[in-house]
Structure formats: structure tokens, C-alpha cells
Amino acid sequence: MRIGLQVGSFTWPGGAAAIAPTLGAIARTAEDAGFDSLWVMDHLFQIRVYGEPEEPMLEGIATLGWLAARTERIGLGLMVGAVHHRPPGVWLKAVTTLDVLSGVRAWSGIGAAWNEEESDALGVPMPPLGERFERLEEMLRLVHAGWHGPSGTGAPVEGPYLHASRALNAPQSIARPRPPILVGGGGERRTLRLVARYADACNVFGTPDQLRHKYAVLREHCEREGRDYATVERTNLGRLAVTADGAGGTLTPSAALDRLAAWAEAGSHHAIVSIPDVHRLDALERLGRDVIPHLAAIGEPPPARDPSLGA
Predict the structure, then answer these.
(1) Which of 155, 172, 299, 301 has the least C-beta neighbours within 10 A?
(2) What confidence tens digit (pLDDT) does each residue in 212-228 have?
């Protein structure tokens, strides 16, 4: 099983001036601990799961570029990009740029988005949900065209909202056949259908039973789309608070392994976890010492990417 870290809060001691050094220390510690991936959110305001809207929130793509320069191995992605924040062509160029400059470490995490409050507050146009899903499918079609061959297909990509006259992408991504595409969300009618049709990975959350159900729905969509379900990397979001003694509602390393094993048994290949007070670094170090070395024996390895997907 793989493990990723999501950093969802930047409310740390020292205020804005301390965010950069603290985030840098978190990223380097996570990489040294053996985390496979590092994720930040694509929000403009802090969200209710982590705090109040007035708390600090960094822009996601700029943050990933900054993190790329301060790490060497760990994968980097948005959990997940909001479809209405960037036009599809800009998204293609942004992820390709991250792939090239980071040395093949970019994830293309994208979703239909939900936070109307932040968009309205900052004047970012946010179409209705049905239109966002149509735009999401258009974006997925464009990135597939742009990541095809040496420099994209060069063909137009048209839809109700997208009029891209030439799917040219230079420099091309170094990752082949493309940077991995993750579609986030557990919507059973539309989101998981888009995963089956276009994505290398899904992302859902919940209890092991809820994960098992979502993955079963995804399998049904794959069957309808003629997609091999085994080629989808199944990721899940979760929380992991680990201490040496498990006090105060936290988990011991042994209990953390049990939780990860339960997610793996439900079908997850890649657990992406948030850690309370991650800026203190001790939980990351403990996971690296007492948990991550044992993950190779848990669950199934992530699948190879399907080069024909989206063709």
C-alpha cells in the first residue's frame, strides 16, 4: 500500500512569515519518512473541516511549484483541482510544467468543486453543478489530447463550453503515457463514471464499508465503459493521528497499521492522510519509523497505467 500526506491547514505558530519554513520542513520530513505523495487543497478560503474561512489558505498550483523545488522524490498534487479555477488549456500547461520541472512527480488531481462561498466572495465565476461536470469532462478530453504523442494530437477539442483549436503541448510531459489523472469525489452517477472513462485514479473517503461500496460502483462503471477495473489506482482520504501511546483519541503505530490494513482490505491502493498538528513533525517521523516500513506487505500494489485510456 502507498501512503500520501494531505496538508490542509496552514494555521501554524508564527503567522504568515512562518508558513514557508514550516511547510518546507513538513515536506522534507514527509519525503524522508517515506511518504509516496504530498497534496494540498485547491481552495481560496479555509474550509469547515479544518477551520474558519479567515484562516490562511495558499493557492494550490503555486504551492506545488514551490514544493517541487524543495523536494526530490515525493509525488505532488492537488486534492483536488477545482474545474472552474482554470481553463482546461491552462490546467494542461500547469500540470505539464509541474511534471517537467519536478522530474515526473506531478499528479493531475481534478474534480467538479463545491465551495460556492469562496468563489462568490472573490468573484470567481462558478457555473451550476451540471455545467461543471460537463466542463470537467471537456477538460479530461483536452488533457488526454494534449498528453498524446510527442506534442499532443494537434487536433481541435470541442464541446458545449470548450473550443480548443489545436491540442498542442510543448514541452510535452516527461511522464509517459501521461501524468496520472485522479478524479476526486464519490458521486456514484457522474464522478465515478468519469473515473472509469478517463482517469488513472479515483479518490473517495469513508469507512472501510463505504470504500468497499464506492469501489464496487466504480467497478460497475468500468464494466459499462469497457475498462479494466484493475487498471484504476484506488485512493482514499482519511485521518491519522498517531502517538506513541495512543492517548487522547490518537492511534498507536500498531493501531495505525490496522487502520491502513482495513482500508487496503476494502480495496484501497493509496491512503492519503491528514495529520493533526503536522507542523510538529513528530507524527510524520513516527510513521516513517514505525508504520511506513510495513506497508509493502499490506494490500495490493497500485496498477500500471493504461496507455490506451482516453484514446
Answers:
(1) 301
(2) 999 999 999 999 999 99
The DSSP-derived string for 98-150 is HHHHHTS-B-EEEE----HHHHHHHT-----HHHHHHHHHHHHHHHHHHTSTT
Q: How confident is the model at residue 311 (pLDDT cuts 50, 70, 90)?
A: low
Q: How far apart are CA 37 and CA 60, in angstroms?
A: 15
- Whole-angstrom distance, CA of residue 152 vs CA of residue 37: 27
Tell me how far apart the alpha carbons of residues 169 and 150 are, in angstroms, rounded to a whole number. Answer: 8
Is the Cβ–Cβ distance between 87 and 161 less than 8 Å?
no
14: burial class by Cβ within 10 Å (0-12, 13-18, 19+)? exposed
Query: Rounded CA gap, 106 and 181, in Å?
Result: 9
Nine cell digits for residue 215 = 469501489
Residue whose grid cell is 519536478: 102
What is the pLDDT of the chain when averaged over all its residues? 96
Element (H, E) at 204: strand 201-205
Alpha-carbon gap, residue 29 to 279, rounded angstroms: 10
Residues 156-195 have pLDDT tens digits of 999 999 999 999 999 999 999 999 999 999 999 999 999 9
- Is the Cβ–Cβ distance between 31 and 4 less than 8 Å? no
Residues 6+ apart with CB under 8 A from 170: 151, 152
What are the CA-CA distances from residue 187 to residues 184, 194, 203, 255, 263 (Å)?
9, 10, 11, 30, 19
Strand partners, 164: 157
250 class by beta-carbon count within 10 Å (0-12 exposed, 13-18 middle, 19+ buried): middle
Yes or no: say if 269 and 300 are a contact pair by the CB < 8 Å rule: yes
Helices (H), the chain: 16-33, 60-68, 88-102, 116-122, 129-146, 191-198, 208-225, 253-266, 282-290
CA angle 153, 156, 157 (to 5 degrees): 100
